[in-house]
Design goal:
Helix content: 25-40%
Shape: globular
Number of strands: 34
Radius of gyration: 34 Å
Strand content: 15-25%
Length: about 850
RNA sequence: GCCGGGAUGGCGGAACUGGUAGACGCGCCAGACUCAAAAUCUGGUAAUGGCGACAUUGUGAGAGUUCGAUUCUCUCUCCCGGCACCA
C-alpha cells in the first residue's frame, strides 16, 4: 500500500467502484427489514454550501450505518426545482428558468458524487419534470373532488408600479425590491387547501411522533393552536345594516371587564363606518400599506380610531365604544375582538395610548379581599377568581367560563366554539416557474378541473422572461383551451402552485419514481413511512406540517397506508459564520469545493460531523478542518505500519477472537481490548440512538490514541492491535467511506467495507474487577479511590474516612451523613 | 410582538438519568528529529496562589431547591430560527 494518504486518487477510485457495482441501488425485498433514510431534498440554487454538506452527510452516515446493521436501505435524492430564485436568475442573466435550473442540477449532482454520498441515482427526481408534477395536478383534482379544495379572495403584496404580486421576501421596508414603490395589500381570488379539516388529527397525532424532537412537536402544537372559547354576539346600537358583531374569546370570565370592541381594518363594519368618516378611511388606507406578514402587524405600534359606533355588552347591557385597531387580525376568528385591557396585554397597551378605561374583574388566586392588583404597568393575564362581575363574583375563572357560557347560550347570544390558529393553505402563486394549476375557467360552466386524460398541464419551458408578471399570462397558446365540460372556448388558470406542494409528497414518490401509470404503486407500502428524515430546523413547522397533512389526505384517498409520513426526525442546526446564517447576501458563505480539493471529501465530512452535535448550530472555523485531516493521515500510516508487520510476521498467527478472552492476556492487553469494546458499545449508541456523531468520533480518536501508545511485541499484541484497528476503520466508514474502503482492502479483506457487518461487542472484554470512585466532603471533590467492584457500603465508608485528604477536611467536625451513589461517588457531609 | 431554541477555557465543543466541569479537536508553549524550515512525533495547557502536595474561584446575569446544579424552578440580558408568498 502507498505510504502517503492521497485523498484525491483514492476518492475518485472508490466512487468509481460504487458506480460500477451499483452499490446503492435499492430493491424491494419483503424478507429483509427496510430502512428508508431521507435528507430533505435541496433547492438547486447552483452552489453547494456547507449547510448542504452537513445535511447530506448526516443522511449518508445513517444510511451506511444501518446498512452495516443488515437493513435494506433506501437512500434517494432529488431536486426541489421550482421556485423564485430561478425567476430572479432569469431576469439577471437573461437565461430561461428551466435552463438555469437544469444546469444547476447537473452541477450539484456532480458535487454530491464527489462528496461520496451513497444515493440510488436511478430514483432521482426533479419536481419541475412533467412526469413528476402531473401526479401533483392529478392529486389536486382528487382533493377538489373530495371537497378539500376551494377558491376565495385573499390578500397579496401588490407592487403598483411593476403591476405584480410580490413575495414577502421581495418587500423591503414596505417597498417593492425592484420598483421601490410602496406596496399595497390587494385581494385576489386564490385556491386553498382545506388543511383545517385535518387540524384535530394533525394536533392529536403529534402524540404518536415519539421519535421527533419535542421542540418541533411543541412548535406545531402552538402553530395549530387549538383554542377552546366562546363566540359572543354584541348587538350594535342604532345601526340597521349590521346589527351584531361576533367576537371570539378564550376568556369569557373577563366579559365584565370589556371596555371597548376592536375591529380589524378589513372588517365589513370598519369599511362601512369609513364611508362617511374620512379620518377612518385614511387610517384603513394606511393599514393597507402593510406587508402580508404576521410579524409585521405584531411589531407595529398600536394604533386605532374610534368609529363613534357603540355596542351592547350582552351580559350587563353596558354600552361600549367600537374601535378599529391595527393589531386585530382579519384572518383569525371573526376579525373582531372584545377588549379587556385589565387582563390582556395588547388591549392594555392600546387602552393606555387612547385613555380607555381599564377595569379589573379578575383577582389573583390566594387573595381574599377585593384589593385591585397593580395594573399600572401591565395587564394581569393569569386566571383567578371574579370580582366586579355581578352575579358571577367569587367564581373561579374555570367556573365562570362555564357559567357565562351557559347564560349567553340561554340568551342566544353566544355558543362554545373551538377555534384554530391554523388557517387554510393558500396554494396559488402568481408566478411562472411552478406547477400549473390544473383548472379551467369556462364562461358557461365556471371553474372546471382539467380532465385526467389531459394531464399533465405542461409548463412551457422556452419562455421570454421579463420579470414583471408571469409570462403565462401573455401566452394565449398556453391559456386558450376548451372547456372539458361543454367544449366551448375557455381559459386555463395561469397561476402556479406554491412550491411547498411539491415537497409535501416527494418522499412517497421515491418509492416508485418512474411509475407512469399511477401516482404510487405497491412499493410505497414497502418503503413508507420514512424511517429517518433529516433537515434544517427552519422547516420545523411549514414543510413538515404540510407533508403530514398531505400524507393524511393521501391516506384518505387510499393512496398510502399509515397516518404519519416520518417516523423519526432529526432537525439539524444551522451552519453559521460570525454568528449569522450563511447566505450570499451576507457574503459569509464557505465554499465546500475548495476544501474538498485541498483535503478531500472524507476530511470535510469528518470535520462537519465532528464540529458539533447535529441539532445544534455549527459555528464554522477553517482551522478545525486541519485536525480532521491529521486524524485520517494518522489512521492511514497506522494501517500501513500494521500491514508491514503482517508481512514480516509468520502468516499462521491468526487466532479466533474467543482466544482473546483467555486468562493469558496481560494487563495492558486487557485494558486496550476493554477500551476497544467499550468504544464499540458507545459508538453504536451514538450513531443509532443519540445521533451524536461528534462524540462518536471523539471516542474513535481516543481509541486511536490508545492504539498508538500500545507497543507491538508479541503475536498477541499484533492480533489485538489488528482487532482494534479494524474496529476503528469499520466504525469510521459511514463518515469517511473512501479512506476506509481503501484501508479495508489494504488489510487483505476481499469484501468491500460497505458490505461488512457492524462490529459486535465482546462482553468478556468489558469485564473488570476494580472501579474508580470520587470522594467528596460537603460536595467538594477531595479524593479519587480505586475500589474492588461490588464493595459494600461499610467497606467504602471505612476506606473513605481513613483517606488522608478526607481526614484533613473532616477533622474536628461532626459527620452528619455519608451519601453513596453506587459505582460513582461517596459524599461525606460534615458540619 | 408571539412561538421554539441557545449561551461552558484563547477557539469549536464534551459532560446521556442531579453526582469528578472542560472529553475530543483546534490554537498556543516546550522538547525530539532537522544545517534550518515545513511535516511528523512526545509532553504541557480554565483562572488565581503555591516548588509541590494542594487550595480558592469558575458553565451569560441574579435568586431558589438540594448533601451535591452546566443539568431542575423563577426573573432578566444577549444571540439564533419560524411567523403562513424565501426554500
Amino acid at each position: 500500500m502507498e505510504q502517503q494518504y492521497n485523498p484525491k486518487t483514492i476518492e475518485h477510485e472508490v466512487q468509481q467502484y460504487w458506480e460500477n457495482h451499483h452499490s446503492f441501488k435499492a430493491v424491494e425485498d419483503p424478507q429483509q427489514e427496510k430502512y428508508y433514510c431521507l435528507s430533505m431534498f435541496p433547492y438547486p440554487s447552483g452552489n453547494l454550501h456547507v449547510g448542504h454538506v452537513r445535511n447530506y452527510t448526516i443522511g449518508d452516515v445513517l444510511a451506511r450505518f444501518h446498512r452495516m446493521l443488515g437493513k435494506n436501505v433506501l437512500h434517494p435524492i432529488g431536486w426541489d426545482a421550482f421556485g423564485l430564485p430561478a425567476e430572479n436568475a432569469a431576469i439577471q442573466h437573461q437565461v430561461a428558468p428551466a435552463k438555469w435550473t437544469y444546469q444547476n442540477i447537473q452541477h450539484m449532482k456532480k458535487q454530491f458524487k464527489q462528496l461520496g454520498l451513497g444515493y440510488d441515482w436511478d430514483r432521482e427526481i426533479a419536481t419541475c419534470h412533467p412526469e413528476y408534477y402531473r401526479w401533483e395536478q392529478w392529486l389536486f383534482i382528487k382533493l377538489y373532488e373530495k371537497g378539500l379544495v376551494y377558491k376565495k379572495n385573499a390578500v397579496v403584496n401588490w407592487d403598483p408600479v411593476d403591476q405584480t404580486v410580490l413575495a414577502n421576501e421581495q418587500v423591503i421596508d414596505g417597498r417593492g425590491w425592484r420598483s421601490d414603490a410602496k406596496v399595497e395589500r390587494r385581494e385576489i381570488p386564490q385556491w386553498f387547501l382545506k388543511i383545517t379539516a385535518y387540524a384535530e388529527e394533525l394536533l392529536n397525532d403529534l402524540d404518536k411522533l415519539t421519535e421527533w424532537p419535542e421542540q418541533v412537536c411543541t412548535m406545531q402544537r402552538n402553530w395549530i393552536g387549538r383554542a377552546n372559547g366562546i363566540c359572543i354576539q354584541f348587538d350594535t346600537v342604532d345601526l340597521k345594516t349590521i346589527n351584531t358583531i361576533e367576537v371570539f374569546t378564550t376568556r369569557p370570565d373577563t366579559l365584565h371587564g370589556v371596555t371597548y370592541l376592536a375591529l380589524a381594518p378589513e372588517h365589513p363594519l370598519s369599511l362601512q363606518a369609513a364611508e362617511n368618516n374620512s379620518r377612518l378611511k385614511a387610517f384603513i388606507q394606511d393599514c393597507r400599506s402593510l406587508k402580508v406578514a404576521e410579524a409585521e402587524i405584531a411589531t407595529l405600534e398600536k394604533q386605532g380610531i374610534d368609529t363613534g359606533l357603540k355596542a351592547v355588552n350582552p351580559i350587563n347591557g353596558e354600552i361600549v365604544p367600537i374601535w378599529v385597531a391595527n393589531y386585530v387580525l382579519m384572518e383569525y376568528g371573526s376579525g373582531a375582538i372584545m377588549a379587556v385591557p385589565a387582563h390582556d396585554q395588547r388591549d392594555f397597551e392600546f387602552a393606555k395610548i387612547y385613555n380607555l378605561p381599564i377595569r379589573q374583574v379578575i383577582q389573583p388566586q390566594n387573595t381574599t379581599k377585593e384589593a385591585p392588583c397593580d395594573l399600572t404597568k401591565a395587564a394581569f393575564t393569569e386566571k383567578g377568581h371574579l370580582i366586579h362581575s355581578g352575579q358571577f363574583n367569587g367564581l373561579s375563572s374555570e367556573q365562570a367560563f362555564k357559567a357565562v357560557g351557559d347564560l349567553l347560550q340561554e340568551k342566544n347570544q353566544g355558543k362554545p366554539e373551538i377555534h384554530w390558529r391554523l388557517r387554510d393553505w393558500g396554494v396559488s402563486r402568481q408566478r411562472y416557474w411552478g406547477t400549473p394549476i390544473p383548472m379551467i375557467n369556462c364562461p358557461k360552466c365556471g371553474t372546471v378541473p382539467v380532465s385526467e386524460k389531459d394531464l399533465p398541464v405542461i409548463l412551457p419551458e422556452d419562455v421570454h422572461f421579463e420579470g414583471v408578471g408571469s409570462p403565462l399570462k401573455k401566452m394565449p397558446e398556453f391559456y386558450e383551451t376548451n372547456c372539458p365540460s361543454c367544449s366551448g372556448k375557455a381559459q386555463r388558470e395561469t397561476d402556479t402552485f406554491d412550491t411547498f406542494m411539491e415537497s409535501s409528497w416527494y418522499f412517497a414518490r421515491f418509492a416508485c419514481p418512474r411509475q407512469n401509470q399511477t401516482m404510487f404503486d405497491n412499493s410505497v407500502n414497502y418503503w413508507l413511512p420514512v424511517d429517518q428524515y433529516i433537515g434544517g430546523i427552519e422547516h420545523a413547522i411549514l414543510h413538515l406540517l404540510y407533508s403530514r397533512f398531505f400524507y393524511k389526505a393521501m391516506r384518505d384517498l387510499g393512496l398510502v397506508k399509515n397516518d404519519e409520513p416520518f417516523k423519526r426526525l432529526l432537525t439539524q442546526g444551522m451552519v453559521l459564520k460570525d454568528g449569522f446564517k450563511m447566505s450570499k447576501s451576507k457574503g459569509n458563505t464557505v465554499d465546500p469545493k475548495s476544501l474538498m480539493e485541498q483535503y478531500g471529501a472524507d476530511t470535510l465530512r469528518l470535520f462537519l460531523m465532528f464540529a458539533a452535535h447535529p441539532e445544534q448550530s455549527l459555528e464554522w472555523s477553517d482551522s478545525g478542518v486541519e485536525g480532521a485531516f491529521r486524524f485520517l493521515k494518522r489512521l492511514w500510516s497506522k494501517t500501513a505500519e500494521q500491514v508491514k508487520i503482517k508481512k514480516t510476521r509468520n502468516s499462521n498467527i491468526s487466532l479466533s477472537s474467543t482466544a482473546f478472552s483467555s486468562e493469558a492476556l496481560s494487563e495492558s492487553q486487557k485494558t486496550l481490548r476493554r477500551l476497544c469494546h467499550e468504544t464499540i458499545e458507545k459508538v453504536t449508541d451514538d450513531y443509532g440512538r443519540r445521533h451524536t456523531f461528534n462524540t462518536a468520533i471523539a471516542a474513535l480518536m481516543e481509541l486511536m490514541n490508545a492504539l498508538t501508545r500500545f507497543p507491538i511485541q508479541t503475536d498477541m499484541d499484533y492480533l489485538i492491535a489488528e482487532e482494534v484497528l479494524e474496529a476503528i476503520i469499520l466504525m469510521l466508514s459511514p463518515i469517511a467511506p473512501h479512506i476506509t474502503h481503501a484501508l479495508w482492502h489494504a488489510l487483505d479483506h476481499q469484501k468491500a467495507i460497505l458490505e461488512e457487518q457492524w462490529p459486535k461487542v465482546d462482553t468478556f472484554a468489558l469485564i473488570t474487577d476494580t472501579l474508580e470512585m470520587v470522594v467528596q466532603v460537603n460536595g467538594k471533590v477531595r479524593a479519587q479511590i480505586v475500589v474492588p467492584i461490588h464493595s459494600d457500603d461499610e467497606t467504602l465508608k471505612k476506606m473513605v474516612l481513613n483517606h488522608e485528604n478526607v481526614q484533613r477536611h473532616i477533622q474536628g467536625k461532626i459527620i452528619r451523613k455519608v451519601i453513596i451513589v453506587p459505582t460513582k461517588l461517596i459524599n461525606v457531609v460534615v458540619s
